[in-house]
Each structure stands twice: as C-alpha cells, then as structure tokens.
C-alpha cells in the first residue's frame, strides 16, 4: 500500500486553518452544484481549533452550513445528551450552536437510548449515512493506541456502527474530563472502520509529541487491525495533518 501523505505544519493552528479551508471549499463547491455536503466529524481535543476556525469563517467570511449534513463518529454509552462530557454537548458548544447548520441535518450517535435499541439505532445510523449519499469528507483524530473513532485495536476492517467496550488506556486518556477514571463510561457507540473507509476523502489530525509514535506507525508501519489508523493506508484519498511535534518520528 501507498504510505499516507503527511502535511506537517509549524503548529496545530496553522494546520487547522488549512483543514478549515479545505472544508470551506468543499461546502461552497457543493453549494454551487445545489448539493448537500456530508461531513463526518470528530470530537476530543484535536478538532477544537478547526471548529473555532470554521465558526470564524461563518461569522466573518459568510461561510454557510445550510447545505451541510453531519455525522459524528462516536458517543459515550450511556451518557446524558447534555452531560458536560457528552460528545453531543461538545459539538453544540464548539460548532453547531455558532453556525447556521440545520438542526435536522445533525447526526450524533445517541448515548441515551435503551440497550435493547442500540443495535437498531446503529443500523439506522448506517442507513442515514447511505441515504445522505455517503460521507464526502471524514475528519479524524487518533488515539495514543491508534484508535480512530472509538475503534480500539483489534477492530475489524469490516466493522460498522456498533457498541464497543473502551480500552482502559482510552478511559485513562479521557479521564481528565471526568472527576475520576471510574466515572468514564465503559462503553461507546462508534462508526466502524468500514464506515470510515467508505468516506470519499479522509483527513486525520494529530498534535503534540505524545502522538508522534502512533502517527509514525499509522502512516508508515504495517497495515494491521492492531493499529486501526494504519488501515487508512488502504484508502485512496487520505492525508494526515500534523504539527512538527506529532510528525517528529516520521522517517
Ligand atoms: C473522538 C474520536 C477519538 C479521538 C481520539 C483523539 O470523536 O473519535 O478517536 O479523535 O481519541 O482524541 P484527542 O483529540 O482528545 O487527542
């Protein structure tokens, strides 16, 4: 497989601005064609500056999200929709509340549904993505263990949206948002690897020195389900955007 093209910027801010430009261009192209623009979105610390830049472009440069349909990667399970740590809340406070996206076009896995409804919810999520025409551009972060979405190491190449058990390392990495690590939910609903790989274009972001080893493995190492992000090497339009620290171990 081709190794992944890597774009290294001085800082997360510059890289995020470049990704925001790519998104804005795509949204406007689709607008001119009278078509929806289907975005796959991530949460966590990595996309914060990207969403801030998109909000700025909406306020200062007239970038409209009227034709945007969004699908978020994942959500903790179970979690209240407006819990401080919920990804639903994160998306509204970092992006959706500040732009003109139509509420009915926002899709986030539902962390509040009953357990016996989860399977149907996941299948319906996949169907909604298909019905929207598929994801035009998927934005990803990367976990220290190589996860994308919450597809932990060992996730199948053929996985779809489903309920998964979070790795302890993931719960620990995300525990700063909770009072203690034991309060981090043990489960999550995530798009699958196959769901992600079906996107027409994929951009993965990584910032800071802690991500350097896993970025090297994902971009240049063997393609293995043990490093889910390495499976992206099989996609024909994927690129990694990083700062110099995250790119410091690339050969
Ligand atoms: C979040 C997600 C995760 C994060 C990853 C990195 O929606 O899908 O894969 O992208 O855990 O998290 P941060 O950006 O907090 O380092």
Automatic annotation (TrEMBL):
<protein>
    <recommendedName>
        <fullName>Glucosamine-6-phosphate deaminase</fullName>
    </recommendedName>
</protein>
<feature type="domain" description="Glucosamine/galactosamine-6-phosphate isomerase">
    <location>
        <begin position="12"/>
        <end position="236"/>
    </location>
</feature>
